[in-house]
Structure formats: C-alpha cells, structure tokens
C-alpha cells in the first residue's frame, strides 16, 4: 500500500471523547450542539457518528490498534473539519465559487488510480486522514474548493502571499459566521481558522491532489 502522502492533514492524538451540552455564555439556547455556525447547529450526535464510523472502519484494518492509537481526539478532529468545511463554503460563496459533482468525481477517480483502486484509496484516507468510506467525497470536495477559491482571488497557494490572501478570506468568512463552540471541544479561533484544541494551520488541511485542474468558469 502506498505510504506516500500526497494529501495531508496534520492530526493531534489522544482518546475518543464524548461531549456534553453547550454551557458557555450565549450557548444555552443550543442544547445538544457541538457548535453553532452561521446560526446552524452541528449536533454532538453528528460529530460522534462521524467518529464512530471511522472507529468501525479502523477495527477492520490489520493495523487496527495502531490506527486507534494514532487517531487521538477523533471527536475534536471531526468537529474541526465540519466547521472548517462551512467556513470554506462561506468563503467560496462570497468569492462566487461553486463546486460541481463532476469535479469531485474527477478528483476521486485520479486519487483512486493513484492508490491502486478503490480499496487502496479507502485505506489511505482512513489511515492518513481519519476519513471513513462514506466521508471521502465530502473530504475531497474541499480539495476542489480551496484551489478554486484561490484562483478566484488571484492567489497562488504555493506562495506565502497567496496563502495569506486566501487565509484572509477564510478569516473574514469565519468571523461572519459567528462560530460558537461547545467549550468541551475548545473554542474557535477566527484568525488561525481552527479549534483552540486542534493545532494545525489551515493550509496543511487541504492541498491539491493529482489530476485536479479547476475548470475555467466552473
């Protein structure tokens, strides 16, 4: 199996944890929510289900024990990714960027070919990105969306200046969404675009995959 990592997510490590109801000031109106983003809830149950799907997939691997040990605070990671996805959606919308099903399928086909088939892709996504089979396309959606956002902003993600430009757009989107996080998970940092308990710069979260070429005017 390919161990080379072409799409990388920096991930923290600890144990799978459950989360209580929101208790922070201003959050009492959203019981059972892991976070409220732009007025919309991300339920604790949604976060836990995503984490549970990953754990179930890990149990079928020959490296099960190692994968569980390596994948740490899975609930926090899943919440972080769900929030980041909504921030990216907002920034893309503000920039007039959309992502088509065809684009996602093309990226998946390229990744599938790279890793020797669908089984190989699923294994790599599970081991390197803590993504279960049913979560792959949503994860790859970000791989299409971020470069298209950069393109719309005239930014080159391979340069510090380009990263700063896109980062500014994401920060503005994050602030506009007024993100309120269940304190058990930490808090959301608009400048760093991440959970306070999940230390990873946004640029390391999503990078282009082989075969990805944004469509002109798409």
The secondary-structure element order is: EEHHHHHHHEEE
> Which CATH class applies here?
Mainly Alpha
Residue-averaged pLDDT: 82
Would you identify the regions where 5 or more consecutive residues have pLDDT less than 50?
1-27, 207-218
β-strand percent reads 5-15%
Major sheet summary line: 3 strands, antiparallel
What is the level-2 CATH architecture name? Answer: Orthogonal Bundle
Radius of gyration: 17 Å
Quaternary state of this entry equals: single chain
- Count of DSSP E strands? 5
Can you tell me about this structure?
With 218 residues, this protein is mainly alpha-helical. The chain has a single domain, classed as Triger factor/SurA peptide-binding fold. Helices cover 49% and strands 7% of the residues. It is built from seven helices and five strands. The strands form two sheets. Strands 2-1-3 form a three-stranded antiparallel β-sheet. A two-stranded antiparallel sheet has the order 4-5. Helix 3 packs parallel to helix 6 and helix 4 packs across helix 5.
């Amino acid at each position: 199996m390919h161990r080379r990592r072409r799409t990388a997510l920096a991930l923290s490590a600890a144990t799978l944890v459950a989360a209580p109801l929101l208790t922070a000031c201003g959050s009492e109106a959203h019981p059972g929510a892991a976070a409220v983003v732009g007025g919309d809830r991300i339920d604790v149950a949604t976060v836990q289900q995503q984490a549970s799907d990953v754990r179930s997939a890990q149990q079928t691997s020959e490296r099960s024990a190692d994968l569980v040990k390596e994948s740490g605070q899975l609930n926090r990671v899943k919440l972080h990714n769900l929030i980041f996805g909504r921030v990216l959606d907002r920034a893309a919308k503000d920039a007039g960027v959309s992502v088509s099903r065809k684009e996602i399928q093309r990226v998946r086909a390229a990744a599938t070919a790279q890793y020797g088939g669908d089984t190989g892709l699923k294994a790599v996504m599970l081991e390197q990105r803590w993504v279960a089979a049913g979560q792959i396309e949503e994860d790859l959606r970000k791989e299409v969306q971020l470069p298209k956002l950069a393109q719309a902003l005239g930014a080159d993600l391979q340069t510090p200046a380009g990263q700063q430009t896109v980062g500014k757009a994401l920060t503005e989107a994050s602030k506009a969404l007024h993100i309120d996080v269940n304190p058990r998970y930490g808090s959301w940092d608009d400048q760093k675009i991440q959970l306070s308990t999940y230390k990873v710069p946004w640029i390391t979260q999503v990078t282009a995959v082989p075969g990805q070429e944004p469509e002109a005017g798409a």
